[in-house]
Amino acid sequence: MELTKNITLGVYLPGKSKIHNLDPRTKILAVTLIIILLLLSRSYVAFAFSAIFIGALVIISGIPAGYALRGLKPMLPVLVIMWFFQLFLFKSPGATVYFNWWIFEATAAGLHMGNLIILRVLFLFIVTTFLTLTTSVVNLTDGLESLLKPLRMIGLPSQELVMTLVIALRFVLILAEELEKIMKAQMARGVAFDRGNFIQKTKKIFPVFLPLFIGAFKRAEELIVAMDARSYTGGKGRTKMKTLQMSNADFSAAAIMLIYSGIIITTIIFTPPMI
Amino acid sequence: MKFLIKTNSLTHCYRSGTKDEVKALDNVSMEIHQGEILAITGQNGSGKSTLARHFNALLLPSKGEVSVKGLSTSNKQNIPLIRKIIGMVFQNPDNQLVTSLVEEDIAFGPENLGLPQPEIIERVNWALHTMGLQELRRENPHSLSEGQKQKVAIAGVLAMKPECIILDEPTAHLDPRGRREVLESILQLNREENITIVLLTHFMNEVIHCDRMLVMDNGSIKIAGSPCDLFQNGENLKKSGLELPVASKIAEGLRQEGFNIKPNIINMEDLVESICQLK
User: Which of A45, A88, A186, B99 has a 20 to 30 A CA-CA distance from B180?
Assistant: First the structure.
């Protein structure tokens, strides 16, 4: 019953590496670029290059490789099922057939499609985890706010959206703790959450979530009053204690990203796709 | 005498105009002096929170008037200035901290005021220093004790450089140690920074440190005066559902048993001294 221990949202490993010290905006933009390139990649060669690049980043950051991969464990069964789905159900006329039974047909096209999807999910996961491992939540939201600022011109309330995110991140832990308290209180009165079949278990969840939601609304109301008392009137007219500053390292990082993008785009054009 | 806050026949009704109308404040006229520590006590539902929320225009009067340094809260244009003069700290620290980093949370108020960056940094440093929180500036409030969280909340208000801080039962959620720490910082703010303090509390052991106290009951002020005087007339307080501080209770009991105990005893030190002089 230790819910707060299982929450790994925004886990950050403090460090002093070159990657940790980059401006969060550089990191957010770089990760976005890597994600776009990953989604465009369709050849094994392109993924191999990305693997080398991301591996190098992880080594520079000094984060233990096991740590970067740890979060994958609960996803593993889903990935395996996805792979089998693609292998047996993806059909492409003229592809080599390895195996055939009833409606299941394992083809070369299915195999490659499965590999492609697994590689993409795997790499996306590692890259985004890498971002949160090397960037604190506060830096991330600051970077996001700064990057989204120009969108104010087209009417997007970017500062308010980021403030919402900041508050949400703060309350995740508080609400997890509250959920734990409610469940323990009910266990003390004889509710056994781990007993019964699926439907019986599901029924027990409702009496837990109702007080949690009511509690959350009460907290929200109190928070609004407190923010009001501290003169919050939305993003307009607000200044910031910290302003982000690009350094030489950020320009080097941009140059490296440019070279990497060039290599990946060249491989995408000149190497044969998986399917 | 300069009044910082003044209410004039203040009446407040919740859900006014409907049939569940509740009169939370009834014709309250009072003033708060610059530089004092005022305690407002009373049972739950006596209207003390409602009254306090009028001081910085979180609530507006149904009838009557509230003015802060001569500025009426009913005039919308005054509200930003009033909120700058009067800061407010609430009961539950978890529900008033906004960000996941102590120093960022303290900067929240000054940022809202639109101050230039160097001034925000200076104020945050000053507030951290004044509340003794320098070591915790890079922490997540979640990892702090309740008392420390409440001190962060006070520092967040302090960084806005208010003339007066209203504290709405700031120690109700705390353990005895946290309670003592928070009370000490509040008293220190009054002493060293000359900030007017309005303390809403249930704890008579906190009231004894205040210059003046008001007892609220049923939406109006029943008793007002210095804690020392009021605790002599224990009967009046009991009628409003309040208890005497421990030292006064013991002194009262000893007097009834025929011991010669000095009048005006409200804290332990005086009681001990008086008992030692017996014999």
Answer: B99
Residue B138, pLDDT > 60, answer: yes
Q: Where are the beta strands (DSSP E) in A159-259?
A: none
- Tell me the C-alpha distance between A100 and A98, whole Å: 7
Interhelix angle A24-40/A137-148, nearest 10 degrees: 80
Residues of A in contact with B109 (CB under 8 A): 230-231
Element (H, E) at B72: strand B71-72
Residue with structure tokens 């039974």? Answer: A101
User: For residue B100, what is the nearest residue in chain A, using CA coordinates?
Assistant: A170
| Summary mean pLDDT of chain B | 90
Of residues A99 and A7, the one with the higher pLDDT is A99
Q: How many CB atoms lie within 10 A of CB A189?
A: 6
Q: Is B125 on the interface with A (CB under 8 A)?
A: no
Q: Report how far residue A86's alpha carbon sits from residue A41's, in angstroms, rounded to the nearest whole number.
A: 18
Taking contacts as CB-CB distances below 8 angstroms, the residues of chain B near A5 are none
Cα torsion for B100, B114, B58, B196, to the nearest 10°?
Answer: 90
Give residue-wise pLDDT tens across range B25-59. Answer: 999 999 999 999 999 998 888 999 999 999 999 99
CB contacts, 8 Å: B103 with chain A: 241
Q: Inform me whether the C-beta atom of residue A228 falls under 8 Å from chain B C-beta atoms.
A: yes
Question: What pLDDT score does A2 carry?
Answer: 54
Report the C-alpha gap between B211 and B181 in whole angstroms.
19
Indicate the DSSP class of residue B143. G
Q: What confidence tens digit (pLDDT) does each residue in B219-278 have?
A: 999 888 888 888 877 777 777 777 788 888 888 888 888 888 887 777 888 888 888 887
3-state secondary structure of A204: helix
A111: number of CA atoms within 13 Å, CB side?
9
Whether this model's ipTM surpasses 0.95 comes out as no
Whole-model pTM: value is 0.82
Name the CATH topology of B3-241.
Answer: Rossmann fold (3.40.50)
The residue among B127, B84, B76 whose CA lies nearest residue B105 is B127
- Is A78 an interface residue toward B (CB < 8 Å)? no
Cβ of residue A246 closer than 8 Å to a chain B Cβ:
no
Distance from CA of A254 to the nearest CA of B (A): 28
* Cβ of residue B210 closer than 8 Å to a chain A Cβ: no
- B92 in contact with A, Cβ within 8 Å: yes
- Cross-chain Cβ contact A138/B104 below 8 Å: yes
Contact assignment for A239 to B116 by CB distance below 8 Å:
yes
Longest dimension (CA), chain A: 70
Q: Are residues B179 and B163 in contact, defined by beta-carbon separation less than 8 angstroms?
A: no
**Measured between alpha carbons, how far apart are the two ends of chain A, in Å?**
46
pLDDT at B262: 80
Residues A35-63 have pLDDT tens digits of 999 999 999 999 999 999 999 999 999 98
